[in-house]
């Protein structure tokens, strides 16, 4: 796959394909029992995951072939569409509510999460804006504050769903892009310090979030309540040992572990494939982060460097949060594991981001 500018980063591509293959297998293993008992066929979620993965690979190839500098003209339209959908999902009878959260739009089983498109739109827009206003970013009031104000619109809308995990991933990506674009460390430090009390307020004003914090500190104190997810995940990981129980032999996936093939799929992976399987996945994510930041550092211009930084950081933060939650390193929050968890819009748009990275990799020095 040569172009006039160079070759794609095949190591990045193979790492992502490895994660996708592992994810497809474990999604089937983790969902088969639930699908059979509730829908009459063990292949329900597997079939849909394969369809979404195939669509995502088509999008990846298209993004890898569509020269990255053209994304500048799409930055604002994609962002505006994402904001409209984020508002729409909060409107009763339009947004679909599941487990107390209103995060989906769609009809029947065909549902998408506007927050996934918001991630793409945010990265495109701020890569464009930071490129145009790079000379202002060293000035706190002229450069940092206006961009932060725009980013706050995204934070508030996603947090209102409510989705604290995705909000944190988007916020983390924004601040990393801001740092790479040239903002001063002391300005970012001041923002981080001021964000901590805001995060505290967000947590204490919602009882379930505060309960998750207390359960994180001692999950066995709430074994049938907020600590249930964490305890079942740790039981799954502990049961797997070094080599695992084998594919299809997860006990926790038989209705004990909530969200077994979405948010907590890493626990099922650890139970069935053991420490060897979980370390393989972690190493593949490290390769994705390494190659992504390598592309960002060798990118030919500021816009492409910020795009690569944004997509790499988003994948890395999501993976870190998900694995941290499953291993009881972080409090429970709902966020999927990229390329591994079951999901349509998340999988397709994550693969689209990889396509952009591959596109930029053709032009690296």
Automatic annotation (TrEMBL):
Mark the transmembrane ranges: 50-68, 75-96, 140-158, 164-181, 188-208, 228-246, 275-293, 305-327, 339-360
| GO BP term, example | regulation of cell shape
Its recorded reaction(s) are: [GlcNAc-(1->4)-Mur2Ac(oyl-L-Ala-gamma-D-Glu-L-Lys-D-Ala-D-Ala)](n)-di-trans,octa-cis-undecaprenyl diphosphate + beta-D-GlcNAc-(1->4)-Mur2Ac(oyl-L-Ala-gamma-D-Glu-L-Lys-D-Ala-D-Ala)-di-trans,octa-cis-undecaprenyl diphosphate = [GlcNAc-(1->4)-Mur2Ac(oyl-L-Ala-gamma-D-Glu-L-Lys-D-Ala-D-Ala)](n+1)-di-trans,octa-cis-undecaprenyl diphosphate + di-trans,octa-cis-undecaprenyl diphosphate + H(+)
Q: Which UniProt keywords apply?
A: Cell cycle, Cell division, Cell membrane, Cell shape, Cell wall biogenesis/degradation, Glycosyltransferase, Membrane, Peptidoglycan synthesis, Transferase, Transmembrane, Transmembrane helix
Pathway in which this enzyme or protein is active:
Cell wall biogenesis; peptidoglycan biosynthesis
Q: How does it sit in the membrane?
A: Multi-pass membrane protein
EC number, as in UniProt: 2.4.99.28
Q: Which GO terms describe its molecular function?
A: lipid-linked peptidoglycan transporter activity; peptidoglycan glycosyltransferase activity
* Cellular-component GO terms for this entry: cell division site; plasma membrane
Transferase in keyword set: yes
- Name a Pfam family for this protein: FTSW_RODA_SPOVE
Q: What is its main location?
A: membrane
InterPro entries associated with the record: FtsW, FtsW/RodA
Q: Where in the cell is it found?
A: Cell membrane
For this chain, the family text in UniProt reads:
Belongs to the SEDS family. FtsW subfamily.
User: Any idea what job this protein has?
Assistant: Peptidoglycan polymerase that is essential for cell division.
What's the name of the protein?
Probable peptidoglycan glycosyltransferase FtsW
Q: What is the lineage of its organism?
A: Bacteria, Bacillati, Bacillota, Clostridia, Eubacteriales
């Amino acid at each position: 796959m040569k172009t006039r500018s160079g070759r794609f980063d095949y190591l990045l591509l193979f790492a992502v394909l490895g994660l996708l293959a592992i994810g497809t297998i474990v999604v089937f293993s983790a969902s088969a029992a639930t699908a059979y008992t509730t829908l009459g066929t063990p292949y329900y979620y597997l079939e849909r995951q394969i369809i979404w993965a195939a669509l995502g690979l088509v999008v990846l190839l298209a993004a890898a072939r569509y020269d990255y500098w053209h994304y500048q003209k799409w930055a604002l339209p994609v962002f505006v569409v994402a904001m409209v959908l984020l508002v729409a999902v909060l409107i009763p009878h339009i947004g679909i509510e599941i487990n107390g959260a209103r995060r989906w739009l769609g009809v029947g089983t065909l549902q998408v999460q506007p927050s996934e498109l918001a991630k793409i739109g945010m990265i495109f827009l701020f890569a464009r804006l930071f490129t145009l206003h790079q000379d202002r970013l060293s000035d706190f009031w002229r450069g940092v504050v206006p961009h932060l104000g725009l980013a706050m619109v995204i934070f508030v809308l996603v947090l209102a769903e409510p989705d604290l995990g995705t909000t944190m991933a988007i916020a983390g990506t924004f601040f990393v892009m801001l740092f790479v674009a040239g903002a001063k460390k002391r300005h970012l430090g001041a923002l981080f310090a001021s964000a901590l009390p805001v995060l505290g307020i967000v947590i204490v004003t919602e009882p379930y979030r505060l309960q998750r914090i207390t359960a994180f500190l001692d999950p066995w104190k709430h074994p049938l309540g907020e600590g249930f997810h964490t305890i079942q995940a740790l039981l799954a990981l502990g049961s797997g040992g070094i080599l695992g129980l084998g594919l299809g032999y997860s006990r926790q996936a038989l209705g004990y572990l909530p969200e077994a093939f979405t948010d907590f799929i890493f626990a099922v992976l650890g139970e069935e494939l053991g420490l060897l399987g979980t370390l393989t996945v972690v190493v593949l994510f490290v390769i994705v982060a390494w190659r992504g930041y390598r592309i960002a550092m060798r990118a030919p211009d500021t816009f492409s460097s910020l795009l690569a930084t944004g997509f790499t950081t988003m994948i890395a933060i999501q993976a870190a949060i998900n694995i941290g939650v499953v291993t009881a390193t972080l409090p429970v929050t709902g966020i999927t594991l990229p390329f591994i968890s079951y999901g349509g819009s998340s999988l397709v748009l994550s693969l689209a981001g990889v396509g952009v990275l591959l596109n930029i990799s053709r032009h690296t020095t």
